[in-house]
Amino acid sequence: MSNILIIGAGGVSQVATVKCAMNADVFSKITLASRTKSKCDAIAKLIKDRLGVAIDTAQIDADDTDAVVALIKKTGAELLLNVALPYQDLTLMDACSRAGIPYIDTANYEHPDTAKFEYKLQWAKDGEFKAANTMALLGSGFDPGVTNVFCAYAQQNLFDEIGEIDILDCNAGDHGYPFATNFNPEINLREVSAKGRYWERGEWKETGPMEIMFKWDYPKVGVKDSYLLYHEELESLVKNIKGLKRIRFFMTFGQSYLTHMKCLENVGMLRIDEVEHNGVKIVPIQFLKTLLPDPASLGPRTKGKTNIGCVIRGLKDGKERQVYIYNVCDHEACYAETGAQAVSYTTGVPAMIGSMMVAKGIWSGKGVFNMENFDAKPFMDELNKQGLPWEIIEMKPGERYEV
Ligand code: NDP
Questions:
Q1: Which of 306, 388, 289 is CA-nearest to residue 341?
Q2: Cβ-contact 150, 390 below 8 angstroms
Q3: Which residues have any ligand 1 atom within 6 Å of their CB?
Q4: What is the pTM of this model?
Q5: How many whole angstroms separate alpha carbon 30 and alpha carbon 75?
Q6: Res. 110 pLDDT band, cuts 50 70 90
Q7: Euclidean distance between CA atoms 117 and 403, whole angstroms
Q8: Residue 377 within any structural domain of the chain
Q9: Distance 392 CA to ligand 1 centre (A)
């Protein structure tokens, strides 16, 4: 039985908090705290109305480490789940190591001014967590998160050696808007407008943004244009999957999204530096976020499915093997269960499962860890129980779903 403090009250948080409340045998006390307390109260009301479970709420500025330490002490929290923004990762990690409790998040640290996302500064806190006799679990969403667990499961159970991994993220949902993002617009647009990067034979190769595209036939979804992006799980998987020769990440985008993004980029609306407008300083991408639909509001309008998974190629018993491990999620079913669409759902459910692994002591240690550092099987079992069932297709060596 654990006492959890959840920070942030957006779409991902709503799913993670609902799912923690659905697992009250593990999470005996839940406190939801965020910058805007009314958003926490709205999630608390939804949980009370639907599940009859009462949770506590609080106001917090997660950039203020002292205030977070005080809140941990006040609530008696035994673990902290960060589903605020990646900008808060370092201050919340510091609060956890100071309070001596485990830290869990879903996205690696980004500095608001540089658009650079990498694990370096979070991994550097390994010594602090060791000294505090506790742990940090990084990237417990879907990608990163479940995709790392799929790779770890393959390494631990399906292959003697893994040579190539392609991570394939398809969102075939339709929300009816010409342009909207499925999670925080600022974080999403920074990610997809960056240069592409993949890892091959020991070195990083860079491409232009969206330069490499291929068509992939996603099971239960269909054929979608898939673009090569850099994604943060590549950084840890390159380190942790031994013998890996190539790893790439692809995400699907529709033409309307791409056309809007190109126009916004061309006119400077994706800039992350300050510009002066009528004597007021604004950051264009933050202003754009204000204009775009709130991702949390997409839930009731989104129809269709997501399919996220990994195609893994390697050797087993001296023979070539290729498997495709994936999950398919339905936007409308996610909304019916949690009041949020599938992108929030596929992130919030693994955030809860990662917290559960830590709360139950199934995943334990001292220091800073990525998902693939642990036994994948118990996490994979929970995915099947908690709403993200996975399937494995045994593909012929060399067989492609590319069309
Ligand atoms: P939202 O923007 O919907 O929610 C973020 C929440 O964090 C808001 O409630 C916001 O408060 C709160 N917040 C922001 N700054 C602070 C602060 N300084 N102190 C306290 N609270 C703060 O984001 P999402 O729910 O879409 O995403 C949440 C996280 O999940 C992000 O880190 C995102 O990168 C990650 N993610 C990970 C994925 C994965 O698969 N691994 C996929 C999708 C998302 P307020 O409402 O007041 O602004």
A1: 306
A2: yes
A3: 8-13, 34-36, 39, 60-63, 83-86, 88, 106-107, 141-145, 183-184, 187, 295-296, 343, 347
A4: 0.95
A5: 9
A6: confident
A7: 32
A8: no
A9: 31
- Between the CA of 186 and the centroid of ligand 1 the distance, in Å, is 10
Residue 130 sits in which domain range? 2-138
Do the domain assignments include residue 336? yes
Does 223 score more than 70 pLDDT? yes
Q: How many CA atoms lie within 13 A of 150 on its CB side?
A: 32
Per-residue pLDDT, averaged over 127-149, amounts to 98
Domain final position from 116, 138, 160 = 138
Give residue 8 CA to ligand 1 midpoint distance, Å. 6
Which pair of structure tokens corresponds to residue 200?
Answer: 């091959």
| Distance in angstroms (rounded) separating the CA atoms of residues 262 and 295 | 20
Closest to 305 (Cα-Cα) out of 338, 325, 333? 333
Give the Å distance between the CA of 141 and the centre of ligand 1. 12
- Please indicate, yes or no, whether residues 101 and 245 belong to a single structural domain of this protein: no
Under a CB-based contact definition with an 8 Å cutoff, are residues 53 and 32 in contact? no
In 3D space, the residue among 84, 88, 45 whose CA is nearest the CA of residue 63 turns out to be 88
Which among 138, 155, 178 is the end of a domain?
138
Tokens of 120: 């370096």
Total number of domains constituting the chain? 2
Residues 175 and 132 in one domain: no
Q: Is the pLDDT of residue 182 over 90?
A: no
